[in-house]
Structure prediction request, 728 residues.
Amino acid sequence: MPLRFFAHFILISAGILAGALQAQENQSGSGNPFAQAKFVPDISLILDGSFNWRDLDDESCESLFLPGFSDAEGDHSAHSHEGMNGRRGFNMNYGELVISSIVDPFFDLFVVCHLAEEAFEIEEAYFTTRRMPWGMQLKGGKFLSHFGRLNSQHTHQWDFFDAPLIYTALFGESLLNEKGLRITWVAPLDTYLMLGGEISQGQNPASFGNEGFSAFDGQIEIKGSDGPNLAVAYAKSSLDIGNLTMLGGLSCALGKSRLNQGIDEGEPLTRARYGATTIAAADVTLKYLFDSIRYIALQAEYLHRKSEGDGYFIEPLSARLFLAAPYRQRQGGFYAQMVGSLNKRIRIGGRYDRIAQNEVTLPGVTTQVPGHLNRYTAMAEYNPTEFSRLRLQYAHDRSRYENGLTGYLPKPVNEIILQINLAIGAHGAHAY
Amino acid sequence: MKKIILAAFLLTALPALAERLQIVTTYPYIASITEQIGQERVRVHALAGGQWDPHTILPKPSFIAKLRRADLLIINGAQLEIGWLPPLMNQANNPRIAVGSKALLDLSRFVQLMDVPTSVSRAHGDIHPDGNPHYYLDPVNIPLLAKAIMDKLIELDATGAGYYRKNHAAFIQAWNEQLTVWDKKMAKLKGITVIEYHKNLDYFLARYEIKLMDTVEMLPGIPPTSKHIAALEEKIAGCKVCYILQDIYNPDEASRHLATKFNIPMVKMPHDVGSVPGAEGIFALFEEIIRRITHD
Prediction:
C-alpha cells in the first residue's frame, strides 16, 4: 500500500476542503463570483477505538484458528483489516471516511475509505443510478455485496463489535466486498419485494479468488479468470403486522475458488485448491416497536457453503511429487441475536454463534476437524446521542483451536471490549 | 415463476392506468391536508405514524414499497426527515420523486422558519440548521401549505385543476372559520409563561403570544441531566409558569417531577394527526391542542 501517496491524498483533500469552506465564508463578504462551496459533497468521519481485556496473551491468540476454515497456524490471509483483531489494551480500530453526493441527474456517488493506523483502503466506491425505469437500479464499483442481511452493513452499524462467526469464517474479516455490478428491482406492490443480482470479480480470499497460480515447474497450473468470477442473487421481502415488522431474505453466491496460500513455501499444500463454490443463505429479522424509542429485534441468519474440486498436496514419501485429488467441503452455521432498545440511550443484546456443520475432506489431511464451533456474545450500549456510542461487550469464544500433537485442541477465549464510536460531519441515516 | 414476473411487470404499468394520483407523505398531518384538497382524485399514504417521534422514525422496508410507486412525495422538510428518509428514497429509486424532480414537494419552503441558527454545531444538540421544523403547528401556516399542495396537484394533474381549486377554497373557508373560534379561545392565554419538553410548539406559542421559559430536555434531542433539572427548578421558583407541555413520545418523568414539585399542570400535547385519540384529522388536531391547553 503506497502509504505516502495516500497521506498526500488526504492532505490535499483536506486542503481543498479548507479552501472550499474559506470560499464559503468569503462568499458572504467580498463575494467570490466563482465560489463552489455549495457543491461540497456530504462528508462524515467515524472513529472507533477500544480497550480490550482477554484471558490469553496476544501472541497465543494470534496463533489460534478456526478449524476447517483457516486450517493452518497463523493463517491470517482473510484478515485484511489491520488492527481489527484487537490487541490487549488500547486499540485504534478504524476510521471511516464517507464522501457522497449526487453527481448529476443520473448518478449518485458514494466513497467509503477505511482508515487504519497505517493503512488507507478504499472500502467502497460505487455509483447508483437515479433514473432507471420500472423500479430498477444499477450499482457499480467496489461495494459490499447485498448477500444476506448483514453483509452490506458497515462495521459501525453492527449491533456487536464483531461480525458473526459464520460470516468471517466464509468471507473473512472484510466480508464479501467485490468489484462489480449490481442490479435490483423493487416490485410495484404494496408489500416490499426486492430481487437483485450481482456479478463481480470474485476475489474474496476466503471462498473464491480469480487469480491463477502455478507451482512445481508448471506441474500445477491453474489459470486465472479473465473477468467476473462470482455471481450473487437474492430476494428480500418484508411484511408489517401492526407494530411488528418482519424481513426475510434468500441469497445465493456462485463462483470458482482458487486458493493458493502456502504454495510457494513448500509445505504440504493443504490449502491450495481449485473448485466450484456455492454459498447459500437465509435470513429473518423480526422487529417489534413498543413506541418511538423502545423496540426489540430478533435477527437470525443461516449460511451454508458447498465447495468441490481439486486439492493439491505433496506426496509425503518423495517430497517433490504433488498429487491432485478431489476435495469436498460442506460447512454451515448460523447466528441468532436479540437486541432491545430500553430507552433513547441504552440498548442491550445477546448473540449466539454456531458453526453447525463442518465436513471437510482435503487430500492428504487426516486431522479431524470438530463438527461444532460456538461463541456467546453479550453487549450493552450507552448512546449519549446518535453521534456517539459506548459499548461494553463480553464474548466467550469456543470456536478457536490450536495445533496439538495429536490433532486440534480447543482453546476457549474470554474477551471483554469497551468500545467507543464517534461520528462527525454529515448526518448518516441508516437503512432499516 | 415466469408468470409471477410477468404479473409483476403488468402491475408496474398499473399506476399509470389508475385514475387516482398516488401520493406519499412523510407525516400524517400532510396526508390529512392533501386528502382535503385531492379527495376523490388522489390516494394518500403517510409513512410515519402520528404517535411516533417525527425525528427518529424507525424505517421499514414497506416504506420503500410505498415510495417506489408514488407519483408525488410531500415532505415536511427543514431536515425533520434527515435521519430516516434519504436511504429509503435511494432504495426506492423512483425517479419521479427524486431530489430535484417536480413531484417532490418540500413544504418548509412555503413558510417562514423560526430559530434559524447563526452558528451550527452539534455541541448545541441535534439542531436543525434550517430552523425549527415544527412550523405546521402554527394554524396560520396551514393555509400556506394547502395552497402549495393545491398548486402541485394542479401542476401534476391539470385536468383536475377545477376540482382541486374548489376543494381548496372550501378547505380555506372552513379553516378560517375555525381559526376565528380558536383565536377567541386562545386569547385568554396571551402572555402566560410555559415550559415545553422539546421545542415542538414554538410556532403555536409564538402565534398566541405565549412565552416559552425553557425546555425540559437539556438540548434538542438530548434528555435532561439532573444538573439541568436543578437549574430549571431555580428558574421556575422565580417566575410563574402556567403549564409544562409534554409531547407524547418522549419520557415524561422529568416533566412529571417538575409538575408535582411546583404544582403546575403537565399537559400532554399532540404533535401530529393520529398522535392521540381525537386528533384524527388536521382540524381535529388543532381542536385537540387547543382543548388541552385551554381546559375546555
Notes: Residues 8 and 95 of chain B are 19 Å apart (CA to CA).
